[in-house]
Amino acid sequence: MKGQITLKDIRSYKIRYNQDELDNISPDKINVWNKYVEMKDEKKILIDRINKATLPYLIEGVKGTGKTLMVRSIAKELGWALVEIRCTDNTKERDLFGSQQLEGDTSYWNAGKLAIAFKGLKIYGKVIIFIDGLDFLSPEVQSSVLSLFDKRKSIDVAGQVFNVEGKEKLMIVCTTNPPIYTGVNIITEPLRSRLIGETREYPTPQINKKILDWSGIPIDTIQSPLLTIASTTHDLATKNHITYVLSPRDIEQFIEIYNDTHDTIQCINQTILIKYPDPTEKEQIRIRCRETFGVDI
């Protein structure tokens, strides 16, 4: 049929890679903005799995608990290249595999993130594909990556099959939100069956005391009430009373503002109440903050 693209046409495309992307996945280019503090032994467990590089690993956990920092820290420490894919509900197959591009009278295939990863294997030998937000991928896109997640560890790009060869190592690490979050999609059964992993529980006050820097923060008037409020938001979210759970990231923001201002009410407004656009939810949290911190807000 005239104008129809055939498999032969697709195989004729030359795959074009962005050299900056290939350079930026290098281990020495990985940005680690802080030291990752283990909650338990999750970092050691993931290091063992990455060194084996056999089974895709899923981390299910709340935001702000350092999942991305942990993966980046490990990649840098172990000397693995890192291809990071931040998923949204707009992530399409072309973002992962690439797409046809026209240049004058000729066509080429612009490499997507997964194609970049396999090209990176030839350069660096060891690559981690970090898919942040696997649950955001549509069922159709999830179906398209099944061969990457099983023992085949392969993808088809522009009619070419990419495999892990020789001594190359390819590891897949993914994250997903816990059930209390409103997700765009679920991880389909065929994809979930290919995964192992961990469920990262909401941090207890004891864990938050361990992983955060509380220097300069009064225990009785700030630290204890703040940890109580954070746990309260988690409890309320599990009962579907509110939609936003305060994470270690939010607590860290509160600590920074308090160290700058020593103004409890300003901290509550800027780092807690601002997270609740819904008036009913905001009023619930405002009352909880007033009672817990003992301030007139």
Explain what this protein looks like in three dimensions:
With 297 residues, this protein is α/β, with parallel strands linked by helices. The protein has 14 helices and ten strands. The chain folds into two domains: 7-200, P-loop containing nucleotide triphosphate hydrolases (Rossmann fold), CATH 3.40.50; 205-293. The chain has helices at residues 7-11, 19-24, 42-52, 67-78, 93-97, 113-124, 139-144, 146-149, 189-192, 205-211, 219-238, 248-261, 264-271, 279-293; strands at residues 15-16, 57-61, 81-86, 98-103, 106-111, 126-132, 155-157, 160-162, 169-176, 196-200. Helix 11 packs antiparallel against helix 14 (279-293) and helix 12 (248-261) runs antiparallel to helix 13 (264-271). Mean pLDDT is 92; it is low at 5-10.
Counting DSSP H or I runs of 4 or more residues, the number of helices is 14
Per the principal axes of the C-alpha atoms, what is the gross shape?
elongated
Walk across the major sheet and give the strand order: 3-6-9-2-10
Q: Which architecture name of the largest domain does CATH use? A: 3-Layer(aba) Sandwich
Largest sheet: number of strands, sense, barrel closure: 5 strands, parallel
The secondary-structure element order is HEHHEHEHEEHEHHEEEHEHHHHH
Provide the β-strand percentage band. Answer: 15-25%
| Residue share in helix | 40-55%
Overall domain count: 2
Radius of gyration: 23 Å
Number of strands: 10
Give the rounded overall mean pLDDT: 92
CATH superfamily of the largest domain: P-loop containing nucleotide triphosphate hydrolases
Low-confidence stretches: 5-10
> CATH fold name of the largest domain, please?
Rossmann fold
Provide the CATH top-level class of the largest domain: Alpha Beta
Distance between the amino and carboxyl termini: 70 Å
Structural class: alpha/beta
